[in-house]
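User: Sequence in, structure out. Go.
Assistant: Echoing your sequence, followed by the structure tokens.
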Amino acid sequence: MKIILILINTVFLLSACTPTVGSEKWCQQLKEKAKGEWSANEAVEFTQNCIIRLSDDKK
């Protein structure tokens, strides 16, 4: 039982370290990731939050 609790806590702690989708840190992290490793959802979110948002900010 202790092992299961340790594993659950470890997964919880590691998943809390990922940046929020659409944040500047998330956009930068995806830019550094190989485009072939992106999921379809990541590509859509990147376009909506990083490319379109950036072009709106310049106006």
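User: And one key feature?
Assistant: Helices lie at 2-15, 24-32, 40-57.
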